[in-house]
């Protein structure tokens, strides 16, 4: 289709809803024997609303806004608007299409196209005679559309006539218009017809003023968002456009900008405060201006910032409709970055406006920007959550919202025991947690969204000089099935992309230098919990390690073995209500390590009198002697999105292989917890998965060594590195060593007393999976200085490192 440029808009495709056939499209698109009569047509353009002297109560859509106002700020005035159409150009008529419909049957009788000279407002046209009373429509500045509307088409369909368009600012071309005259009869009206035209588009003008001397705001982008693609030539659309029917208009990023846009009947609501006009409170398809840039307060540090201005009636905060033939003039004064103004978005968005949320956000400390934000009204990834694993005790719908009113730091590491991970944590009125990086180049922190003093949810902030979320380094893993083994379910050969380091680690490089080895540890997680705990801060063989330097929100140092509680102090119940209580406590107390209570082995708590549940969730007992596992155990199985294929009979590896990310998953967006079989290539023996025979270790040659003395572990000089280096694919090192993954001897935090143990002895990592139907344990990688166990089973109360796989 030919693309015709007009009024600063480009017709991309005509979405004609009328019936058109080749036989019907003759000259003028009429049946050849239709008689016509001359008619003198007179035209005028009705002024756009808002251009006349009216008050806001009468529909003036001018809007004076002050954005992000802070005490003591004044602003410079804006420059003169440039690059938009003049009033004369907005009224100009270049060509017309005339459509005549009979009133008796509502069918098209005649159509005609005519070009007009500059300034011409009259034209001699023809209309079908002998039709009687009719309705005449005039479309102006749209090119020749007469061939798009078939003879005999219904007026009701003609009113839906539309095209998809895109636009920048007006550049001297004309605006599409429409007008009509009902009850016209050329035989009785002296062959004279007057039609008043109105524009089929709205005009949006932005006049931007910026801070006075002292503060600096540098504009990087000014865009008009959620602009309707469809231009309805004749009548307004009766419904709001869908998301797929929206587009974005750009600009030259100056302080004075104008766009001409199709109308968007997005709707209205009950808002009364202009500062509450932000994404969570407005219709999803509402049109808005997005101003982005860098704001530097006097004496402060530059921060990325965005300002959102939703369009609508200038006198109604709850109106979000963009109406044709209306001017929307926005005089916006930027006066600061006050986060109590919901139209202000401070920091670089890590959550893509709440569409890419997770429990962990990764920040690259080499980025010049130090201010960040993420949507804090969505739990984790916002996944729908069944009551069985819900900390609320009821089903949580997908993307359900929480309602914080403040935010706070929970804990942070300090690099060198001095440099903080974060300098600032705050809550923005529009539902974001905003934070500023501290001086540390590597580190971890947990921040919480609160309502009053109650923690509603919390998130892990992982800062590193290595990458941001999009640059996380991954390696290809392949499974190595040994099907037919007793006690094991059969698995299939498949591939994964897994992080090259533990979650929260500053490095994935194999080393035996203490300062560098500690950087590879990352953080620890109890099975099924989303919040991390600080890892060991030493490279020695110890069962009571000091942790890395960690501080709470008040600047108090957090010591090892602190902030702990036994699960029995939360509840000793064994029903779903008790599960809810345990999960709710974990959510509300992200700093607290929950110890197991081995007294849950008694029959009173569903135990067999011998075996505790070894779980931070009280009385999580598995299947025993054919009896079903306990309610807490069934919930624990599913917290990280895996579970058992059959909760009564599943063997080892009989777990749900397709892990579905849950709201408790600790991984960043685009990643999730790994399945149980992901490390099966780490051994090569065919009769088992786990072995203490170095001949079966699928590792680099230097790591084919055992030290069976637990007190020595990897301190043994025969180990080149502080852990083991495994082949993730194949049986040999690839030319680029891309299939060599280092797992450090980071140890773990013991679920019985909270001590950090086995540092220098064990290289552990959690999977998302339970171990089997008859086991209270979880599935994990168990590597020690004398053992490699890709399919092993620890206590779920213990806290181990995590390594995430790509979705």
TrEMBL record:
It holds the Pfam family DUF4906. Residues 257-331 form the DUF4906 domain. InterPro entries: DUF4906 (IPR032594). It comes from the Bacteria. This is DUF4906 domain-containing protein. It comes from Bacteroides stercoris.
């Amino acid at each position: 289709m030919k693309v015709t440029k007009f009024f600063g808009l480009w017709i991309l495709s005509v979405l004609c809803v009328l019936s058109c056939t080749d036989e019907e499209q003759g000259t003028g698109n009429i049946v050849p024997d239709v008689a016509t009569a001359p008619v003198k047509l007179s035209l005028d353009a009705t002024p756009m609303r808002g251009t006349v002297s009216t008050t806001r109560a009468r529909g003036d859509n001018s809007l004076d806004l002050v954005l992000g106002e802070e005490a003591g700020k004044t602003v410079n005035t804006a420059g003169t608007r440039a690059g938009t159409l003049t009033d004369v150009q907005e009224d100009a008529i270049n060509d017309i299409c005339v459509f005549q419909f009979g009133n008796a049957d509502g069918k098209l009788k005649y159509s005609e196209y005519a070009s007009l000279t500059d300034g011409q407002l009259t034209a001699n046209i023809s209309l079908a005679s002998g039709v009687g009373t009719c309705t005449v429509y005039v479309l102006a500045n749209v090119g020749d559309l007469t061939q798009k509307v078939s003879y005999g088409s219904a007026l009701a369909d003609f009113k839906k006539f539309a095209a998809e368009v895109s636009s920048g600012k007006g550049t001297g071309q004309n605006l599409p218009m429409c007008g009509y005259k009902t009850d016209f009869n050329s035989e009785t009206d002296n062959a004279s017809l007057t039609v008043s035209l109105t524009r089929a588009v709205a005009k949006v003008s932005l006049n931007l003023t910026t801070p006075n001397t002292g503060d600096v705001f540098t504009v990087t982008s000014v865009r008009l968002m959620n602009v309707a693609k469809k231009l309805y030539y004749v009548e307004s659309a009766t419904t709001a456009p869908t998301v797929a029917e929206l587009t974005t208009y750009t600009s030259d990023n100056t302080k004075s900008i104008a766009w001409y846009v199709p109308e968007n009947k997005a709707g209205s609501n009950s808002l009364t405060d202009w500062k509450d006009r932000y994404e969570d409170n407005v219709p999803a398809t509402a049109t808005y201006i997005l101003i982005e840039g860098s704001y530097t307060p006097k004496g402060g540090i530059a921060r990325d910032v965005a300002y959102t201005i939703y369009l609508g009636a200038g006198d109604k905060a709850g109106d979000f409709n963009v109406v044709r033939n209306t001017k929307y003039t926005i005089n916006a004064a930027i006066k600061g970055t006050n986060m109590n103004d919901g139209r202000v978005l401070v920091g670089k968005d890590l959550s893509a406006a709440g569409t890419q949320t997770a429990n962990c956000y990764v920040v690259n400390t080499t980025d010049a920007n130090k201010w960040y934000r993420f949507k804090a009204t969505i739990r984790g990834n916002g996944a729908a959550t069944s009551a069985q694993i819900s900390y609320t005790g009821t089903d949580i719908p997908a993307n359900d919202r929480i309602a914080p009113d403040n935010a706070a730091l929970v804990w942070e590491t300090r690099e060198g025991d001095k440099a903080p991970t974060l300098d600032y944590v705050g809550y923005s009125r529009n539902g974001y947690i905003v934070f500023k990086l501290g001086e540390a180049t590597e580190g971890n922190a947990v921040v919480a969204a609160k309502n009053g003093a109650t923690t509603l949810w919390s998130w892990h902030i992982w800062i590193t000089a290595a990458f941001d979320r999009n640059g996380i380094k991954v390696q290809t893993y392949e499974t190595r099935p040994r099907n037919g083994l007793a006690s094991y379910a059969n698995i299939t050969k498949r591939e994964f992309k897994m992080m090259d380091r533990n979650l929260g680690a500053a490095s994935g490089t194999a080393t035996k230098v203490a300062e560098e080895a500690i950087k590879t540890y990352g953080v620890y997680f109890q099975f099924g919990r989303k919040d991390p705990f600080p890892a060991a801060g030493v490279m020695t063989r110890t069962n009571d390690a000091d942790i890395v330097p960690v501080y709470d929100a008040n600047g108090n140092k957090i010591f090892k073995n602190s902030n702990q509680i036994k699960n029995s102090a939360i509840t000793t119940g064994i029903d779903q209500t008790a599960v809810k209580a345990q999960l709710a406590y974990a959510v509300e107390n992200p700093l607290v390590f929950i110890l197991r209570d081995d007294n849950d082995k008694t029959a009173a708590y569903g135990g067999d009198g011998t075996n505790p549940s070894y779980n931070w969730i009280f009385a999580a007992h598995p299947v025993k002697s054919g009896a079903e596992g306990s309610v807490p155990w069934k919930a624990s199985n599913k917290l990280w999105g895996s579970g058992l294929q059959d909760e009564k009979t599943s063997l080892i590896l009989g777990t749900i292989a397709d892990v579905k990310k849950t709201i408790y998953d600790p991984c960043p967006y685009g990643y999730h917890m790994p399945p149980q079989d992901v490390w099966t290539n780490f051994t090569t023996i065919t009769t088992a998965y786990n072995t203490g025979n170095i001949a079966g270790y699928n590792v680099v040659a230097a790591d084919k060594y055992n030290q069976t003395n637990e007190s020595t572990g990897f301190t043994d000089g025969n180990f080149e590195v502080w852990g083991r280096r495994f082949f993730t694919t194949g049986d040999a090192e690839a030319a680029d060593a891309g299939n060599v993954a280092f797992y450090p001897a980071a140890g773990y935090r013991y679920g019985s007393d909270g001590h950090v143990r086995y540092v220098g002895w064990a290289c552990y990592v959690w999977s998302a999976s339970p171990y089997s139907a008859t086991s209270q344990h979880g599935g994990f990688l168990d590597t020690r200085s004398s053992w490699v166990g890709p399919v092993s089973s620890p206590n779920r109360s213990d806290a181990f490192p995590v390594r995430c796989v790509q979705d």
